[in-house]
Amino acid sequence: MKTRLLVALLLAVPFFAHAEFTGPRASSSSASSRAVVTTVAAANKAADDTPVLLEGKITRQLASERYEFKDATGSIQLEIDDDYLPAEKFDQTTPLRIKGKVDRRWNQRQRYIDVKSVQIIR
Q: Domain range for residue 62?
């Protein structure tokens, strides 16, 4: 009985191993395999779902959960769920660190950042 169980486990091991092709023309199916974008200018040119880590300032609120963000290279819209806003109050002069991903609405070319974290830089 123990021998059969051991044989079954040893035969199952290869099925649990995960590997990924990384050679030429390999698809980067996960956002984690993409380089992190650190400027607004690069985010405005990045592919959908590219991770971003931006530092700059929110200059104004455009609508509920929509904001304009600027850094030294340009501006981009942010979509921030209220749950991700910092507990402290901040204004247009407060430096922030934004983590999220590049997104685009299906009927628009303009990109925006789907924000998952907002930190005040001290």
A: 34-120
Counting the structural domains of the chain, the total is 1
Give 55-110 pLDDT, tens digit per residue.
999 999 999 999 999 999 999 999 999 999 999 999 999 999 999 999 988 777 88
Rounded-to-integer distance, Cα 101 and Cα 80, Å: 11
Residues, the chain, total?
A: 122
CA gap 21, 17 in Å, rounded: 13
Average pLDDT, the chain: 85
Q: Looking at the chain, which runs of residues are DSSP E strands?
A: 51-63, 66-71, 74-80, 96-104, 111-120
Asked whether the beta carbons of 39 and 52 are under 8 A apart, the reply is: no
The reply to whether 69 falls in a domain is yes
4, two tokens: 């059969």
pTM of the predicted model as reported, rounded to 2 decimal places? 0.71
- 47: tokens are 């592919």
Any idea what the CATH number is for the domain that residue 103 is in? 2.40.50.200
